[in-house]
Specification:
7-stranded antiparallel sheet, Heat Shock Protein 90, 21 strands, 14 helices, 42% helix, 5-stranded mixed sheet, alpha+beta, rod-shaped
C-alpha cells in the first residue's frame, strides 16, 4: 500500500511540474510577443518622429512673408519673391532640396505657366491636373491647394503647391515640391542617424499599382508568434533577418486644409481627415502646424499606395530586437526549466533514497537475523562442549574429538567476527590500495593454505567436489597475501554454500593462470542454480542476498562478495560475474563463473614457474 501511494504521489508531482512547465511556456510566449511588439512600436515611432521632424522643414516655405500675407503683390514683387524662395529652398539653397522650381500663372491662361529654376524664367506648356474651382471659391481658407503637374517640360508626379494671394483670384503662385529629392536628401539620412544600430533598405515602388488592399508584410505578428527556446538557443547569431517593414509617407505638409489635396486624388477617393477628426477646419486653423498626409496606414489600408509611401525594411546590425529579446527571455526560461527539473529530480531522488534506505534496513534486519543464527550455532556447540568437559562426562578417548570440535567452531566464530570487522574497515575507507601490505609471496603456499581451510568444510558436504587447475600459475608474485586469500576464500565459500542447493551435489572448478603480459586470472565455476539477470547487478552490494537464499533461509551474511570485490579493487584488479557462461566446449552453462583479475609482478626472483 505504501509503495502504491508513493508511486501515485510521484505521478502527481511530475504531472504538476509538467503543467507548470506548459504554463511557463505559454507565459513566455505572451511575454516575448508583447515585448517584441512594443520594441517594434518604439522603433517605428522613432522612425516616424524623425521623418516628421524633417517634413516640418516644408513649413518654412509657408512661413515666408510673401506667402503668408493675403495682400495683392505689387508689380515686380512677385518675381523677386519667387526667386528668393527658390534660392532659399531650391536644390542649392540654404535649406536645399525642398522645391524644384517656383512660378505663377493667371486665371485667364491656366495652361501657360511661368517657371523659375536654375535656368531662369521660362514659359512652359505644362498644366495642372485637377480643377481650379476650389481655389476660385470666396472662402479665405481655400487659398492653397496641392496639384500634380502634367506635360513634358517639367518633372511629373511630384506635388505642386498652388497659392492664391490675389483677393480677385486672378494670379496664382506655384511651388514645385521636390518630394523625391527631399526624401533622399533629408529623411533617409536623418532616419539612419537616429538609429545607427540598424541598417535600412528603402523599397522604391514608384510606378506600381496606386492602391493596394493590404499593407506590406511587417515580418512580425504578435498573434501568430510562438516562443521556441530550443531553436532560439541554437540559432545563428549572425543571421541577418529582416526585423520588420514600415511605410513612410513620401510627402507631409503642415498648415494645409484636408481639401487641399483634392487636386491629386483619383476619382472617388476622399482626402484624409485632420488628426482631430474635423472634416472642415476653420480658416484660422489653416496655418497651424498639424500634419496632413495622403493616406493613413493605421486607419485605412486602401491607401497603401507606392506613390504615397516608401516602404522601409529594417535590418539589425548586431542582433535584432527579436533576437535580443528572445535570447534574454530564453535564459529566463532556461533558469525556470532547470529549477523545475531540479525540483522534480530532487523529489525523485528523495523517493529513491527512501526506497534505498527501506531496502537497506530490510537487508540489515536480514543480516542481523542471519548473523545471529550463524553465531548461535558455534556458540551453542562451544557451550555444550564446555559444559560436558566441566561436568567430567567426556571420556579420555573422546577428548581429542572435543578439542577438534572446539577448534573448528572457534575458527568459524572468529571468521564471522573477522568478516564483520573487515566490512566496517572497507566502509570507512581504511583498506585502500596505498595501505595494503604488498610482499613477494609463494602462490603455492597461499593456495595450499586455502585448500586446507576449505577441506573440513568440503568433508561436511559429501556430494561436492572441487577441481584445481593451477599449473599455469607462477610460483611467486608480489601482492597483498591477506587480500588475495580473503577474495579466494570468500568466492569458494560462496560456491560451496549457494551453488548447489538442496542435496548439494556437483563440481566446483578452480582455475588460475598468468595472462601475458602481467595479469593473474582466477576463475571459480559451477553448474548450479545460477543468478538471475535482475539480481546479478546487486550481488556485490553489502548485505544483499538473492531471493532464493532469503526464501530458503540459507546461511550467509551477504558480505562475502562485497568484501571480495572491494579487496580486488584495492589490489588494482576487478571481480566480475558471468551467469550463465560459456564453457570450454562453447556450450552455455546456467551456473556462475566468478572471474578475478589482478596485476602481476614477478618480484626480484623473476617469473619462476
Amino acid at each position: 500500500m505504501a509503495k502504491i501511494f508513493m508511486r501515485l504521489s510521484l505521478v502527481a508531482v511530475f504531472g504538476a511540474l509538467v503543467l507548470i512547465y506548459l504554463l511557463q511556456n505559454q507565459w513566455f510566449t505572451r511575454s516575448a510577443a508583447g515585448e517584441i511588439s512594443r520594441a517594434h512600436r518604439n522603433i517605428s515611432m522613432t522612425i516616424l518622429r524623425t521623418a516628421g521632424q524633417e517634413f516640418q522643414k516644408y513649413s518654412l516655405i509657408l512661413l515666408d512673408p510673401f506667402l503668408r500675407t493675403s495682400q495683392s503683390p505689387k508689380d515686380g514683387e512677385s518675381k523677386n519673391s519667387l526667386e528668393k524662395i527658390y534660392n532659399s529652398f531650391g536644390p542649392e539653397g540654404e535649406i536645399p532640396g525642398l522645391i524644384l522650381y517656383t512660378g505663377f500663372f493667371t486665371r485667364e491662361e491656366p495652361e501657360s505657366l511661368w517657371i523659375y529654376n536654375h535656368q531662369g524664367w521660362q514659359k512652359t506648356g505644362n498644366s495642372l491636373s485637377g480643377s481650379l474651382e476650389p481655389l476660385l471659391s470666396d472662402d479665405p481658407g481655400r487659398d492653397r491647394m496641392i496639384y500634380q503637374m502634367s506635360g513634358r517640360d517639367l518633372p511629373q508626379g511630384s506635388p505642386v503647391l498652388v497659392v492664391s494671394k490675389d483677393p480677385e483670384k486672378r494670379l496664382f503662385f506655384i511651388l514645385g515640391l521636390d518630394t523625391e529629392g527631399f526624401f533622399n536628401r533629408h529623411v533617409k539620412p536623418a532616419v539612419a542617424e537616429a538609429l545607427p544600430e540598424y541598417d535600412f533598405t528603402w523599397r522604391e515602388t514608384s510606378g506600381e499599382t496606386w492602391f493596394q488592399e493590404t499593407p506590406p508584410d511587417p515580418s512580425f505578428r504578435e498573434e501568430t508568434y510562438r516562443f521556441s527556446p530550443i531553436k532560439i538557443l541554437f540559432r545563428n547569431n549572425t543571421d541577418r533577418t529582416k526585423e520588420f517593414s514600415l511605410p513612410i509617407p513620401r510627402f507631409v505638409l503642415s498648415g494645409m486644409d484636408r481639401t487641399a489635396f483634392a487636386g491629386i486624388l483619383p476619382p472617388g477617393v476622399e482626402a484624409p481627415e485632420t488628426p482631430e477628426g474635423n472634416p472642415s477646419p476653420a480658416p484660422e486653423r489653416d496655418r497651424r502646424f498639424s500634419f496632413y498626409l495622403l493616406g493613413d496606414p493605421e486607419r485605412d489600408n486602401r491607401r497603401y499606395s507606392p506613390e504615397i509611401y516608401a516602404y522601409l525594411d529594417v535590418f539589425p546590425k548586431e542582433g535584432s530586437v527579436v533576437f535580443s529579446t528572445e535570447r534574454r527571455l530564453v535564459f529566463s526560461w532556461l533558469a525556470g526549466t532547470i529549477l523545475l527539473f531540479l525540483v522534480g529530480f530532487g523529489y525523485l531522488f528523495l523517493i529513491l533514497q527512501m526506497e534505498r534506505l527501506k531496502a537497506l534496513r530490510t537487508r540489515e534486519r536480514e543480516f542481523v537475523a542471519s548473523i545471529t543464527h550463524e553465531l548461535r550455532t558455534p556458540v551453542s556447540v562451544i557451550q555444550s562442549a564446555a559444559d560436558n568437559l566441566s561436568a567430567g562426562i567426556v571420556s579420555p578417548e573422546r577428548m581429542a574429538t572435543y578439542g577438534s570440535l572446539l577448534t573448528e567452531q572457534t575458527r568459524r566464530l572468529g571468521g564471522m567476527i573477522e568478516e564483520v570487522l573487515l566490512f566496517s574497515k572497507l566502509q570507512n575507507g581504511q583498506d585502500r590500495r596505498d595501505t595494503l601490505k604488498r610482499a613477494e609471496i609463494s602462490l603455492e603456499d597461499l593456495l595450499r593454505e586455502l585448500k586446507e581451510y576449505i577441506e573440513p568444510i568440503l568433508k561436511s558436504s559429501n556430494n561436492l567436489r572441487i577441481t584445481w587447475e593451477l599449473n599455469s600459475l607462477p610460483r611467486r608474485a608480489v601482492t597483498d597475501p591477506e587480500s588475495l586469500a580473503v577474495i579466494l576464500r570468500n568466492l569458494l565459500l560462496n560456491a560451496l554454500i549457494h551453488a548447489y542447493p538442496g542435496e548439494k551435489t556437483g563440481v566446483i572448478r578452480v582455475a588460475g593462470w598468468l595472462r601475458i603480459p602481467g595479469t593473474l586470472v582466477f576463475t571459480i565455476e559451477d553448474e548450479g542454480l545460477g543468478i538471475p539477470a535482475s539480481e546479478s547487478k546487486r550481488l556485490f552490494e553489502p548485505f544483499y542476498r538473492t531471493r532464493y537464499s532469503r526464501e530458503n533461509q540459507e546461511k550467509g551474511s551477504g558480505l562475502g562478495l562485497f568484501i571480495a570485490r572491494k579487496k580486488a579493487e584495492a589490489l588494482g584488479g576487478r571481480l566480475k560475474l558471468e551467469s550463465p557462461y560459456l564453457g570450454p566446449e562453447g556450450r552455455e552453462k546456467k551456473g556462475c563463473r566468478f572471474i578475478l583479475e589482478i596485476p602481476y609482478s614477478a618480484g626480484k626472483g623473476g617469473e619462476d614457474r
